[in-house]
# Entry
Amino acid sequence: MKGSSLKSLAAGGIAVLFAAMSAPSAEAQTAIRVGFCSKTMTAAAAGFFAVATKLGWFAKEGIKIDLVPIAGSGDCVKAVATKDVLFAIPSIEPLAVIRPQGVKVKNFYTAYQGNIYGFAVPAESPIKTIADLRGKKIGLISMGSAGLIVTRALVTADGMDPDKDVSIVVAGEGGQTAALLRTKQIDVLSQFDTQYALVENAGIKLRFLDSIEIAKFPSNGFVALEETLVSRRKEAIAVARGYAMATVFAMANPEATVRIFWEIYPQAKSLGKEEAVALKDDMHVLSARIRNLRLEAGGATKWGESVIANYQAYLDWLFKAGVFKDKAIATDLVTNDLIDEINTFDVAEIQAMARNWKP
# Structure
């Protein structure tokens, strides 16, 4: 390649070129099944994996990611426990539920430092507080969602019986949820940040009920069986590092992340929309998630760091609300053992790459 041609490449393009040159061949890459806990593939769920794939970060580590959509955090943890997937990215509550059964699944990377759950209602709804939910129908994405656990805890904390005072039903995701709200078949949602953005994209403006109690609690992160973190430590670090690098990239250039997501997962691009509208909608979903990815949301200092005090406070709150029979110990469920190795990358370099990225 001539020198003048090299000079015309953006800084990000050069980095991708060298990453591709040094990456193992496709045949040499180990396929890793990773569960993401939603049936709807969005830029906020899969965009980070798309970026790390596109820029060669996974390939350089000798791995290839196969994303597996699973309906809810509870089902994600079960899939890890049965070894249907090697890693998944659920919320913490199902880990506390399954551990007393002898299943040792542990979070080794906290992805969402802020809590993504909570109640939402249509903007014009007469429901103003959690106390107003008495007698109302609450829609989850599935009964395997951590939204069920959060719902029961929030309702209990407000002095109601979740088995008698409210009705908890499955409302599905995205457009299906929006349709049920629009026809008043459900009154309130107990889902999470990106699902709420999808409902708004479907034309329903939402208003969030105050749940200050859970705002400070962490949400989802990468989990694996404890034995996997020993036998497949290298792959665990590689998956989390690629995700962390892509998180930095996405924060610096959300539009680039959406466009790369479309390239790697073309089946997930919205059909029947003008590209400008599709881009606006997908960036709305991604932005909803980025708010909870920021380190300052949980007081973390490194990507993926689990702030033990935050986890323990959340587990204690869930125990007090009667969600768990036995008190859960945060250090049984989360570990920072891999975090230093995961963070061996240059944040400023990736931010520059993102800013210089061209489609």
In short: The first helix runs from residue 3 to 8. The radius of gyration is 21 Å. Residues 190 and 356 are 39 Å apart (CA to CA). The beta strands are 30-36, 63-69, 87-88, 105-110, 117-122, 137-140, 167-170, 188-192, 206-208, 221-225.
